[in-house]
Structure formats: C-alpha cells, structure tokens
Amino acid sequence: MWGIIISIVMAIVIGIIGDAIAGGDMPGGIIGSMVAGFIGAWLGAYLFGSFGPVIGNFAVIPAIIGTMLFIFLLGLISRLLRRAT
Q: Could you tell me the pTM of the whole model?
C-alpha cells in the first residue's frame, strides 16, 4: 500500500520538477504531472538506464530527464498541430 502511494507522490513531484525545468505548460494540473512523471520515468529509464538515487522505484535523475524530454516533445507536437489548423 505504501509503495503505491510513494510511487504516485514521486511521479507527481518528478512531473512538477520536469515541467518547471522544461518551461512547458503541462495541461491537467496534478493528474497531468503524475502522468508525465510516470511516462518520463519510463522513458528516462529506457534511454539512460538506472543511476542516481532511487525513491519509490524511480531512478530520480533519469526520471526527471525523461520527463523533461516528454514535456518538450508534447509541447512541440502541440505547437505543430495548432499551426497546421
């Protein structure tokens, strides 16, 4: 039970940090940050491996980098779609 709660909290924190560093405007508030944190953690672990401190089954540094990449790509796709219409 505590593992799930810690994972959700870490996903939210990682999503907020990644959004702040990437300078994006992540839609969806807390839920959007949580989704971005989970996807970013997966993407970061896939691209960069698992190094640095691990909290709640998240390797923090790759998760933040992966979240920044995800938010940047999401913003880029959003701008391209707005420009196309």
A: 0.80
